[in-house]
């Protein structure tokens, strides 16, 4: 029997006979592979090839040969400072976001029914705000704490303090802005973890004479810890790869790695800049890969609990 | 960046002995209220500021609805601003979101259904590839897409922003994959397709008449999240030098920040609507399941 897949790719397979013979199951695999060909071909063109261009470009000399010279630019002071800033901003915003978000998630779950209105509202808001990055987020904070921002005026009138208009484009300012999408993201990804905590566990701990401290350090803490760490890593990756917000805030200064990449792309015609954007992008891939590896290891560990 | 497609699956109720824990619970309630209030304050302050910013002239302190009027009448002359760039960007973004959603569905849905029925191994491979864009930042992708787009726009297609859809399909893939996978796992695709096949339906017929109608919620969720992502995209468009809504907002922000702030609020409100729709669809599915 010949089977036609929706994409029009003919593939031989016998329907419903996957359990009959190894040969048929092999043919099934082939048919399934044929059906996924457009998907894999597409991702090869627009995901794999761009990534390869970055990796190869990082090792390519101006004359086309292989070289490690491009990496020397990574060791330049400028680049190292930006890399450090990027990591620091991502780490601090991830930490603040994770702690505040976890507390909020806990506050949402504890002592209320799973379908409470408060919870539904906050989940809906969070899923929107977690995506709220870029230009619009920059506008929001300029409207709040910019020179003529509402918050700036409020603080001036209530407390007589003048907010430094440059505070937004300082590191603490940037971290606060990043927290604006980190906290909602944490709420969304940590809610299921908090949900898995049964109130009966606490009651059991109390019946056995355990204090609140013991409950948190011996029962709830160890269960939530791996999930918290993997959420933290995700938040770090999220902040590390963010570009649009910073780009809208700092028009000239390249204080983060993504902003340096922007500068390098704009100066690509300059012979001295050749391969620089690729090296920076390669460095970002390496950092992201490390984060993902760590996250994978943590998740493996948390699997034991669930 | 994730959307809560997960469903409240718990039947958890609080059944603590009230007398014993009354004090603890009261304390807990206060802590809870404080945490939630502070978090909500932090999240709402900037939004409220945006709204105030659009109706109050920052320099003169005069209140007016000019910015909103300009957007809804489509005419920025009263504020001395040319809005054509905004409409251009909005048009491209809307077109892009439609094209991206359709392309994403064509590329992923048939493959995901067949792989789900036939091969667990290939399904895993697909999942791995589809969620890869979460690991590769958009800014990195742009560095690699640059040469590809230079070639595409010079030799094959044009510099029209609509061709950004190729990159956008990649960007929406992780979210769309999750939404579709949730749908696929919630129905018994194997039994459905075997039943239809044994009744003599051809594969395309099984797909169009049996599987898609059972997956429509997931299809909508995946499309909506794709639209939301595309409407908020700035990185790829701005670095490849193409126009879209966010690029237009940024450029307009340089000359009239009130109008672009107002437009940002509208774009955000539209995003909220899309995500609420996803939530409502998920809720409806749940209710339906409970009744069965």
UniProtKB/TrEMBL annotation, chain A:
One of its GO terms (cellular component) is plasma membrane. InterPro entries: MetI-like, MetI-like_sf. One of its GO terms (biological process) is transmembrane transport. Belongs to the binding-protein-dependent transport system permease family. CysTW subfamily. It is a multi-pass membrane protein. It is found in: Cell membrane. This is ABC transporter permease subunit. Residues 83-297 form the ABC transmembrane type-1 domain. The lineage of its organism: Bacteria, Bacillati, Actinomycetota, Actinomycetes, Bifidobacteriales. CDD domains: TM_PBP2 (cd06261). The chain crosses the membrane at residues 30-59, 79-109, 121-147, 167-194, 228-250, 279-298. Pfam families: BPD_transp_1. Keywords: Cell membrane, Membrane, Transmembrane, Transmembrane helix, Transport. Its main location: membrane.
